[in-house]
Design brief:
Layout: E1 3-11, H1 16-30, E2 33-40, E3 48-56, E4 67-72, H2 75-80, E5 87-96, E6 114-118, H3 120-128, H4 134-146, H5 150-161, H6 166-185, E7 205-207, H7 209-220, E8 224-227, H8 234-243, E9 250-253, H9 257-269, E10 274-278, H10 280-295, E11 300-306, H11 323-328, E12 338-339, H12 346-361, E13 364-370, H13 371-375, E14 377-380, H14 398-402, H15 444-456, E15 468-471, E16 478-482, H16 486-499, E17 504-509, E18 511-513, H17 517-524, E19 529-534, H18 540-548, E20 555-559, H19 568-584
Parallel strand pairs: 1-4, 4-5, 5-6, 8-9, 8-10, 10-11, 11-13, 12-13, 16-17, 16-19, 19-20
Antiparallel strand pairs: 1-3, 2-3, 2-14, 7-14, 12-18, 15-17
Amino acid sequence: MNDLIIGMAGSGGDGIVSAGESLISALSREGYYAILTKSFGSQIRGGESSCRLRVATTPVLNPGGTLSVAVVLNWEDFTRFGGELPVGPDTVVIYEKKTGVAPSEVPLRVRPAVVMAVPISEIAMKAAHALQAKNNVVLGLLSGWFGLGRQAILEGLRRKFAKKGPEVLQANEQAYAAGFAYAEANPIGPDHHMAPPIATGVRRQVTDGNELCASAALFAGCQFFGGYPITPATEIMQHLQKDIWKHGGSLLQAEDEIAGIAAAVGASYAGKKAMTATSGPGLSLKTEVLGLASVVELPLVCVNVQRGGPSTGIPTKSEQADLFAAAFSAHGDTVRPILAPISVADMFGITVEAFNIAEEYQTPVIVLSDQEIAQRKDIVDPVDTSRFKLVERLQPDAKELESYSRFRFTESGVSPISHPGLKGGSYLAAGIEHNEAGAPSSSGEMHAKMNDKRLRKLNPLLQRRDLFVMEGNPDAPIGVIGWGSIAGVVLEAVRAAQARGVDVKLLIPKLIYPVSDVIYQEFFTSLRRCLVVEQSHQGQLHRIIRMWTDVPKGFASMAKSGANPITPDEVLQRIEALASELSSAPAPASTR
């Protein structure tokens, strides 16, 4: 096989996620591509946990759909994940024998291809004298039955347990070996083995979106981070905490979300590239200070890792429902650029771009990541940093400092920005409306001019074609739009439809707001049907596009609430349904 999807579930403490992480590390060393997603209940301790691992010989775009392999340590926990771990007629199900369920009576809606009841706990106790070794028994089973990384897994176990002493290491090695031996003694068929990886000589890395975000911030020159812990964004702060000091920067874990962003705005005023990160409830708290950054035209990057909402919602599951909050949660006429990464690997470039836009246009920029991109593990190629250029804020020259007006009206709308300590560069940065010098003003005429200045300076962004991904025949009658982590799902579905002869094209915006009418209109020109795919109950991007541009007839939404995965097969079915509609509909009248 060239593509394998493994789903595992059990109780907290069963080591399910640890097994997945060990496996993806081993697969990386062997040269495979893979994506590992993790899912937990929202409770602080205990409860169910799961992971799904998609491994392939070529780059993978998303976690996939129906499982190839399901590993069940506890049926109650497994069934809680529902659509996150779907079992189909071709799935191989491996489950803990001591659950007492007969192979013919497993609680699944679909009868799987193979059902194996394995005494996993018994094997762990005999081999390692510890139930905690169950996860390594599972690794042995997967390695034996599916040909996954035997030597690399053993090397990983040795690295992981070497510091815990020879007895612990030996016990875990024995658990793995016992699982492998059981698989060899109870074969399920050679057709289930993974094909060997394609040798490239490139050493890849296992990483996640939060780690790449922090790395990109340091690369971009971030010298201050102010924030507050919140799932699933906390790791950005944790990664920066380790390294920002090495680059001459500072980090503040503030007493709350408001203090975190306020400190970041202060650092930006002091001339430093600054950043904060949060998730939905924290974004709500940060909105007033985001407005302050807008009116005083200070560069700032705010990463919002979306999770299920509203309120506390589902902190451990992904959603794309903070778009309205990011775009519109500001009083007054305020426009903030919003960028969205489309994969773990893309998180690096999007973060760098966010700093560049913030510095060039002197504005807060919101990066809309989401839980899946932030916390899933991907095997990615090394980042080529030579392809990135860094932008610094426009500073006043000596002549401009002779009579400095911080908010001077310019043709572009961008004014030179000074910082404390720059001779002649002192100015007032207050939230109240102001004139060109920064002095308070209640003049309606001045307010209108400043509003125009703050919004007009962002117009060049609307021409940035590099912030959009387009694929397919430009004259195709069917179009699909997807963004964020759903982009990989949509991309796979569109390519599958094209392979079946459907004339369909794809648009993936990385610049989500302001809406680029020129890019969308170019995409819409040939369309008779268009589908916007996203993980939000209201279809928020679908609605925002309708607000700002003329959409074609048949402009439809495919939207789901968070924690309800959208699979490539579902999108493919919708595309084929649209193609069927067009084939039976009369051809449009000529416009000539």
